[in-house]
Design a protein that fits this description.
alpha/beta; TIM Barrel; 2 domains; two-stranded parallel sheet; 7 strands; globular
């Protein structure tokens, strides 16, 4: 399961410990990194954060900025990953995080400075990064990040030992949470995943209203 809760607000460590204790030993949690690392407080997603950032600190969060606040946020996220025995941490950036020299510099500084331990780090870019594929590929390769995509919409630019796919529904926009995947969609997805050459593992995560049903149907399709 991919934890969305860790993106919106930092849970208490006691809560995280309970999640781990209540789950089977072989149950795997994927952590989505807290938005304080990736999204500025002006983002609408902060409405669910349950906290207000003081005006003098609002510029210190998001966009992988080289601030103590962002690095401290990572330390907290890493502690959550370790407590849950997670293997993967996912970073999702908003369309407002554009493909600029400053943002590339921030990413390079962040990922080269942090201690990721044994974690695999995955990134789902949105927005104009796909208008500059050579730069996007360069960043992914240099920082050794898993390229998170919806393979029914676009192909990953690099093949890594672990592939990570997030499906938000089909349509003209990045997300269409009300979309329910058809049998044909799931057959296409199965064909794509099984034909991948190189990866040792592939994660397929549904992030739509019908996520449980669609994931169950896809799992059954893989077993047939």
């Amino acid at each position: 399961i991919e934890l969305q809760a860790t993106f919106y607000r930092i849970p208490r460590l006691s809560t995280v410990e309970r999640w781990r204790a209540d789950a089977p030993e072989d149950f795997e949690f994927v952590v989505k990194a807290w938005q304080g690392i990736t999204h500025p407080p002006s983002s609408p997603t902060w409405k669910k954060a349950g906290q207000k950032i003081p005006p003098e600190k609002r510029e210190k969060y998001g966009f992988f900025k080289p601030t103590s606040e962002v690095f401290e946020a990572w330390d907290t996220v890493k502690r959550i990953c370790e407590t849950l025995k997670s293997k993967i941490c996912v970073f999702q950036t908003p369309p407002s995080f554009r493909c600029t020299e400053e943002n590339v510099r921030n990413m390079r500084g962040f990922f080269s400075a942090i201690n990721k331990g044994n974690l695999f780090l995955a990134w789902e870019p949105r927005g104009d990064w796909y208008n500059n594929l050579p730069k996007l590929k360069e960043v992914l390769e240099d920082l050794q990040l898993i390229h998170v995509v919806d393979p029914l919409k676009r192909q990953p630019l690099i093949i890594t030992p672990i592939m990570y796919f997030r499906l938000h529904g089909l349509g003209p926009r990045d997300v269409n949470y009300r979309y329910k995947y058809s049998d044909i969609d799931l057959e296409k997805l199965k064909t794509y995943v099984l034909k991948l050459e190189g990866p040792e593992e592939a994660y397929v995560m549904f992030n739509n209203i019908y996520m449980f049903d669609d994931a169950f149907r896809f799992k059954k399709l893989l077993e047939d």
